[in-house]
Amino acid sequence: MNVRRIAFLLCAVFGALFVAHPSRAAVSAFPTPPPVPAPNPVTDTYFGQTVTDPYRYFENMNDPRVQTFFRDQNAYTRAVLARLDGARARLLARIEHLDNAGAVVGSVSRIGPYYFYEKLPPGANSERLYVRAAAGGPERVLVNPDALAQTGKHYTINYYLPSLDGAYVAYGISEGGSEASVIHVVQTSTGRVRADAIDRAYFVGATSWLPNHTFYYVRFPALRPGEPATDKETRAVAYLHVLGRNPDRDVAVFGYGVNPAIPFAATDFPIVAYSQASPRYTIGIVEHGVKNEVTMYETRTPASATARWRRIVTDGDDVTGFDWKGNTLFLLTHRGAPTFKVVATRLDAPDFSHARVVVGPGKAVVEQISVAADGLYVLSRHGGFGHIARIALSPDGNLGASRAVALPYRGAVAAIATDPRVPGVTFELTGWTHSALFYYADATGRVSDTRLKQLSPIDESAYTSEEVQARSADGTLVPLSIVYRKGLRLDGSHPTYLEGYGAYGITLEPSFSATRVAWLERGGVYAVCHPRGGGWYGEAWHQAGMISTKHHTWEDFIACGQWLIRHRFTSSAHLAGEGTSAGGITIGRAITSRPDLFAAALDVVGASNATRMEFTPNGPPNIPEFGTVRNETGFKALYAMDAYLHVVDGTRYPAVMLITGYNDPRVSSWELAKFAARLEAATTSGRPILLRVDYDAGHGFLAASRAQSDALLADEYSFLLWQCGDPAFAGIPTRIRQ
């Protein structure tokens, strides 16, 4: 368990549609931008430093002035994009064609004789939940969110958890990208959805079933009258649900205020876990906001408010994942091991300080451990390439020999899935130019295709990838992945899409995207910077880009852009940068530090006003990753990473499109609105600053429908290709502002 989402060969006729039309360059005039909103400065002083916030009032999204700003900016953005001739329409048609060429499968679970999985088949708008016999045969749809859709709204499955026998599945579903999940339960044999409905079950929801068809889940309390929105994601409690019972009568078993002997901070998140591989024990996990390291407890009785919990590890022991069998608990930790190691201790007498090493630290980063009937499966990664090993286990969890699983090709393994009662492991294998498939390795190591998904019909043979390193400002070598068409002429002329994230120890691993072909087939280059703050080289790489060292993240991103220019993949006139979510810090500070380096940028649901993040509903849990303005170290770090506060009047900024979903529960939309307003007021380049708003969306990719995703990608690609000089947009001026 880890306590912590793809070019069909063009016929000549279709291929001729998306070409330059220089003779049609005389497009109708661009609309006049809405007036820059009047500032109303608020001044704060932190540790002797004065900070002026000109658009603090934007944080009140009930303010009519703010609502008008969003509407006017979105209308202007849509009008500008509509002026991009027919090129955008042709690009959207191409993206839709690619996206519907094959099914997309994700989040596979193996439960006894069943596979449960989410799949987006061609023509569907939202991922559906399926079940199929592991041995093969027809699949069945259990939950179809499209059937729930109402006019102007869509629904998304946020998570699911099958019961131990596969008879039921608890799943969370939310409306309009809000991630405000409500837990429902569907019966596998009939597809009938029970009357059970549990609201306020954000992010994780159901965590573990018991053999008697009850399950543990996590719920947040309802806000009291007058309580601030920052308390929305605090004081979480784990409950035990009995099917058919009103959830308001469910019994609290673990979490905030439940047991005085178990301390919980308001931002801690409680998880209760049970396994049939070790039925004598129940595990309690305390997640500390977004911090990867957890505190763990065990009890030999079912979880309850009066259970006698014994602590196994604290967050200071640097444990980020676990699984268990019999009397043996396996722990994934980076304590004294920046690339992680696996250790084991006894559940009847846990002693982390003397735990025996099962997998020692090495060059490969250990990412996940998972118990099956025949052994402990260990997923590790060396650079972007995955490795799976099986360590034999006795019924009580004693260790045997280790053996590597021979993968079909050298690629990225997104995740592994096991059932502790069933031998073998299921895994997804993919790469930058390899369509993903799901494989099963049995107890002998023999690997076979599960046929849960077919290879994408998109022909990726025309493209290649390479892994290089760029030297950052302090001399550190930063990994950079590059994907492009074979035989590409390195003359600095190619539109280049550089993506970067760099937070939480998360790694953007190699993966195939069918819709990315719409960029690559035009001679575009796609590149991914793996900056510090992410997890490419393990926990040390993560810690080198958080709080006081966060500046390395955007410095690394800038270094990757410079490498691409120096090696003639592109030039500043053709380079575009993108950051999503926490990657908003990356792209925001890159363009405010080096506005000359980029022609265009996308800030996608991005954290753009770091000093104010902790005052948003999702802000308090994120303090461990980014810091708090309430201490000097945290304030200085947050100020340094705040793109909004680093906008300088009279600067020639690149074209920027800022993208938000109005229902975003993770990054408040006003962060991007404030950043957009400051860029509009400050830039002298004449390039567009656009704020794109989706009123039926939340945190971007996490809950978007296929139609929304395709439309967004068409807008993003059109905007960047236009600003980076693609021939399809020849003659359309890139500077549209006075």
Please tell me about this protein's structure.
The chain has 738 residues and is α+β, with helices and mostly antiparallel strands. Among the domains are: 76-84 and 460-726, Alpha/Beta hydrolase fold, catalytic domain (Rossmann fold), CATH 3.40.50; 335-455, Prolyl oligopeptidase, N-terminal domain (Methylamine Dehydrogenase, Chain H), CATH 2.130.10. Helix content is 16%, strand content 32%. It is built from 11 helices and 37 strands. An 8-stranded mixed β-sheet has the order 30-31-33-32-34-35-36-37, sandwiched between helices. β23 and β24 (385-393) form a beta hairpin. The longest helix is centred in the first third of the chain and has 19 residues, at 64-82. The protein starts with 11 loop residues before the first helix and ends in a 15-residue tail after the last helix.
In short:
By secondary structure, this protein is α+β, with helices and mostly antiparallel strands. The chain is built from eleven helices and 37 strands.
